[in-house]
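ingest -> validate -> predict -> emit
validate: passed (alphabet ok, no gaps, 209 aa)
predict: started
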Amino acid sequence: MCFNGECLIKRLCRFSCSISLAVIAAVGAPAYADTFNFALEEGTGTITGGLGNIIAAGSGTLTAVPDASIPGAFEITALSGTFGAGMASITELPCVTYSQSHPCYSSSLKYDNLLYPVGLPPFDIVVLDDRGLGLDIGGRAVQVYASSSHFYGWYDSGEPAGAPALGAYFAVTPTPEPCSFLLLGTGLLGIAGSFRRRRSPAPVVSSVA
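emit:
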């Protein structure tokens, strides 16, 4: 065993690296998980200029499954949350007739409810496409969509005809699965056990002449 400063620093570095690898192994996988937290904001900006001042904000969770026809895309199958100071409920407007050539329709809105968790290629910034996501927010039919490679638009079907679409913000973060936490805990326990064994003195073997 060694107790000098250099030796202890090396051990600490090895221990830190091991923990980092365990965290990456356990938490890295949910980047493509099917459950996500989302944040949603309605702004005074324009669809080409960004969010602007925030009018109202909300958050919740959504569930999505990989889309069979579009690589990297997930189809949102369930969504719930709350929005604004009045905590209005947010639910998904179901996409019942989706195909690439025939998007969903709901009154004046059309949307495909597709999510791109790592960003919409080739920009890798926005996570919705230009058809976007259909939402019911307290009885209002709303469409949130990518208006460009960097910005989102917000269209409310209740607005007067010809009313300009507003700026919006939408983001998702993966929700770690329970098995990921189990994997992380198991990895940390294994590392701790290995570190303890290294610190244990080697058994003394005596020889009889």
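Residues 7-28+178-192 form one domain.
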